Amino acid sequence: MRICARCDKPIRDGETYEVRHIEAASGPGGTVFLHAWCKRIAAAQPRRHPNH
């Protein structure tokens, strides 16, 4: 079973998806699956102190 790395939902038969290979410096890398329609979640923006 393939699970989407973005939304953690299963990728069902017939759904389009991407395969990404992640390399690791020490040891074997990994493979993640992503729904083709799943939107990328923007990284959290750092909070600024109101006085700066």
Q: Would you tell me the structural class of the helices and strands? A: mainly beta
Shape: flat
Number of helices: 0
What is the count of β-strands?
4
Terminal-residue CA separation: 48 Å
Radius of gyration: 16 Å
Largest beta sheet: what is the strand line-up?
Answer: 1-2
Helical content band: under 10%
Describe the protein.
It comes from Streptomyces chiangmaiensis. This is HNH endonuclease. The structure is a single chain. The chain is mainly β. It has a domain at 2-35. Helix content is 0%, strand content 31%. The protein is built from no helices and 4 strands. The strands form 2 sheets. It has a two-stranded antiparallel ribbon with strand order 1-2. A hairpin with a 7-residue loop joins β3 (17-22) and β4. The radius of gyration is 16 Å and the shape is flat. The N and C termini lie far apart (48 Å). 0% of the residues are buried. The mean pLDDT is 83.
List keywords for this structure.
mainly beta, two-stranded antiparallel sheet, 52 residues, 4 strands, 0% helix, 31% strand, single chain
